[in-house]
Amino acid sequence: QEREILIKLNKPQLESYGITQNQITQILRGENINLSGGFVEQGLQELSLRTAGKYKNLEEIKNTVIVIREDTPVYLKDVAEVIDTHKELRSYCRTNEKDSILLLVAKQSGANTSQVAKEVRRELPKLRKNLPQDIDFNLVMDQSRLIKTSTSSVAQSGVIGGLLAILMIYLFLRNWRPTMTIALAIPLSLTATFIPIYVVGYTLNLMTLGGLALGIGMLVDNAVVVIENIYRHLEKIGKRRKAAIIGSKEVGMAITAATLTTIAVFLPMSFGAGITGQISRGLSLTIIFSLASSLFVALTLVPMIASKIFKKRERAEDYKKASGERHFEKIQKAYKKVLIWSLNNRLKTMAFTIGLLISTIALVPFVGTEFMPVSDQSMMLLGVKMPVGASLEETNKVISQIENDLVDTDGILAITSFVGLDEASRSESIGLGLGSAGINEAQIFIRLRDKKDRTYSAEDIQETIRKKLPKIRGLEISFTDMSKILISGSSFPVEIKIFGKDLDILKNTADEIALKIDGVEGVRDVDTTLSQGKPELIINIDRERASYLGLTVGQIGSAVKDSMQGSVATQLRQGGEETDIRVRFDKIYRDDIQQIENLTVTTLTGIQVPLKQVAKISKGEGPVKINRESQLRVVAVTANVLDRDIGSVVEDIKSKLSDYELPSGYFVEYGGSYKQMQDTFSTLGWALVLGILLVYMVMASQFESLVHPFIVMFEIPLAFIGVGLALFITGQTLSLPSFMGTIMLVGIVVNNAIVLIDYINQLRKKGMDKFDALVEGGTTRLRPILITSITTMLGMLPMALARQEGSEMMRPMAIAVIGGLLISTVLTLVVIPVVYSLVEKFSKRAYVRVGRIVNGSE
Which residues pair with 616 in a beta bridge? Predict the structure, then answer.
């Protein structure tokens, strides 16, 4: 509250002395003044001359002589009440039902959010030392907290995933030497990744850490293939150095091709536009850097370490008995039987695979689509709108009731209310989604307990709050997803924009659409952006009569404004601070239309004319805020979504509105999260297509063949089967993160097929029969394929299982990768050899037929 000296004028007293409000104002200004009077010389000394007339206290103001009547002075206190008070409030701010002041701290452009917040929190204890004991700080919102919890969750998942990957490698190899080699390869690759991350100017944020965490499982792939091959040659040759050279050289082309294909998939993602590009660029570039680093380590440091510490197993039988190699041999033999059966029943195998793919495609409508997964955050924003025309006090009374109902709600830690903030105040906080506009509106910022410390989810608490809200006719409420504001800037999942010219038609159309979609399952908080005009009293001035009396419109308007709002006459200086002295009629003389009609306006000749003689007062509605988009007037219908995906909700809305006829010249567009989802899927869709083409081109150059890359490409639909099943089983939707995970799969899953086909080709070059080469290649490459796939899945498993606040962003991505990799790995070991056999058969027939045509025999 800001101090103010209020002069409450008594209208009858003023009129009895023939004094106007304007005269009071001028007298106060003339009485509260210090003037320089020059200087006076006294002997050798010169003295400044100053008239000291400034008010020193309220008594001097009260005793100001206004006029002399019959030789008797009339003081200000005779015609007015002088009160030391505060300026009239037009807004309220409370935290946990106590008056508070909101301090918003914004960071400079380019500054690190976490660092800025850390510095601010460090300063708060210092500031508290200089404040009264009953003043305290309550941190109602801290954007860095979400960043910290999200990044720490991802980092923790990455560390656990790396340890699980190393453990799995040891269980497979049962040898500390190769396990140590891979354990060294992971931190070396990560350390090398930090260099290009620093060069391009990225920080360790949610997406770059997510890229590192997702990349940890893939980091070991190259090293595993190299180590497994070196060990295999070490058993045959017995010399470490020679085995390291031959083993790494033999798989060098395969892992290079595999790495380049993965990089080729992520490259288009880094060039995405809009919010999709901003989110995916850090993730994709980090994975590209980590993969390039892992390839370098696998081809240089891993063979070097192997040549120094690897040791040939002297007693193979004892090793098999002790290490569990015998169990792997059982798996290998079982796989060999399945592979032989599949190669002898190729059509049945392909029919089963195609049927599985069609079944998965049929599940897509049940998976659902949305822009971003719902995030269970510890903060929410509740917008409350009273009927237009409600007073500030009435709005504040309702908000106080809501605060009282919510303060004991399970899971709520703090409640901060903003009641009646005007547009000027709102513009300062709109970047954070805070602030209301108008005295009939309020926004309540609700801080929840940490996710781990509460029983109910944020959505459950929202529903509880909805049930507790008072049943007031015309009361509108809406929840804003803070995570979507911080990430994408979009406040509402559903936004139906109606474009046209006439505001009345736009309003009626928006109201009808809002009424129609209100019954759609999952839709909540339906509202329109075109607010009703505020009730107002309009003073219509009779210009001719006013001119006859010597009054202008400006004079009349100023007189009304000064009478109702008051005017600041001067300031009272005390203790180095200046306080406004406001002159205004008492409230009882400005509370209804009759009182306003009797306000007097003084002409230039000093005659006081009642307002009703020169103007008429009528009731009306004030102007509404008009929004334009692409130079067209637009009104939006907005809504939240609960327990359903945005794609299904919008499809139901479109079905509801299918028979609704828009007025001629008016059209509808869908915005909000749905529009962002469409733009995202379009961008990522093109990135997926481009990635697949780049993968094929890279493989064609590596294999020097167009046929073998075509065989590898059959791995991609196998991965899509896994993605669809994983999302359906876990209840995840197809969103930005899961789509990004699907694109990642394209680069990951082909690695297994590349390693398999490359080795089959090597066996055939050595003269082995095609059937035998397929069986031998599959059984020999079974171990590295299983190791690389399982380590990649284990590396992402902690992220898929994470339940900390902020983990919702990366979880769908990890689930998509794990599901796709799991199914594709199983099918790869069977389907790819079958496809290889079929393609080779048909390509050979085509080659023979082309030869006959060339020779002229056909």
Answer: 540
How far is the CA of 753 from the CAs of 742, 793, 852, in angstroms? 17, 17, 33
Picking from 364, 354, 355, the residue whose alpha carbon sits closest to that of residue 728 is 364
Q: Using CA atoms, how far apart are residues 227 and 182, in angstroms rounded to an integer?
A: 9
Strand 3-9, strand 577-585: pairing: parallel
Write out the two tokens for 438: 């108008």
Structural contact between residues 141 and 120, judged by C-beta atoms closer than 8 angstroms: no
Please report, in angstroms and rounded to a whole number, the separation of the first and last CA atoms in the chain: 100
CA-to-CA distance for 790 and 818, rounded, in angstroms? 9
pTM of the model: 0.74
The answer to whether residues 644 and 522 touch, using CB atoms and an 8 Å cutoff, is yes
Q: What is the dihedral of CA 681, 686, 688, 691, to 10 degrees?
A: -160
* Side-by-side strand order, sheet with 80-86: 80-86, 3-9, 577-585, 567-574
Phi, psi of 375 (to 5 degrees): -105, 125
Buried b (16+ CB within 10 A) or exposed e, 612-636: eebbeeeeeeeeeeeeeeeeebbbb
Q: What percent of the chain has pLDDT over 90?
A: 5
314 by DSSP, 3-state: which?
coil
Per-residue pLDDT of 459-486, as tens digits, reads: 888 888 888 888 888 788 888 766 665 5
Task: Classify 9 as helix, strand or coil.
Answer: strand
Alpha helices for 65-175 (secondary structure H): 76-79, 113-129, 143-173
Q: Tell me the pLDDT tens digit for each residue of 739-792.
A: 888 888 887 788 788 878 888 888 888 888 888 888 888 888 888 788 878 878
Long-range contacts formed by 564-569: CB under 8 A, 24+ apart: 564/590, 564/596, 566/6, 567/21, 567/25, 569/7, 569/24, 569/25, 569/28, 569/29, 569/32
Do residues 307 and 234 make contact, with C-beta atoms less than 8 angstroms apart? Answer: no
- Going from the C-alpha of 143 to that of each of 107, 377, 489, the distances in angstroms are 11, 11, 14
Contact status, residue 320 vs residue 756, Cβ threshold 8 Å? no
Are 519 and 534 spatial neighbours (Cβ–Cβ below 8 Å)? Answer: no
C-alpha R_g of the chain: 39
**DSSP string over 550-597:** T--HHHHHHHHHHHHT-EEEEEEEETTEEEEEEEEE-GGGSSSHHHHH
Q: At 131, list the tokens.
A: 């404040």
Sign of CA dihedral 666, 672, 675, 679: positive
Q: Indicate the helix (H) or strand (E) that contains 422.
A: none
Q: Are strands 412-419 and 441-448 parallel, antiparallel or unpaired?
A: antiparallel
Within 10 angstroms of residue 836's Cβ, the number of other Cβ atoms is: 26
Query: Residue 757's beta-bridge partner residues?
Result: none
In contact, 220 and 302? CB cutoff 8 Å = no
Cβ(197)–Cβ(289) below 8 Å: yes
Report pLDDT digits (tens) over 176-190: 787 888 788 778 888
Question: Beta-carbon neighbour count of residue 101 at 10 Å?
Answer: 7
H helices within 174-309, ranges in order? Answer: 176-199, 206-237, 240-269, 274-299, 301-309
Three-state DSSP class for residue 604? coil
Distance (Å, rounded) from C-alpha 743 to C-alpha 748? 9
Closest CA relative to residue 699, chosen from 689, 709, 691: 709
The two counts, helices (H) then strands (E), for the chain are 30, 23
* 332: three-class secondary structure by DSSP: helix
Cβ-based neighbours of 707, under 8 Å, separated by 6 or more: 839, 840, 843
pLDDT tens, position by position, 326-337:
777 888 889 899
| Strand stretches in 655-732, DSSP E | 667-671
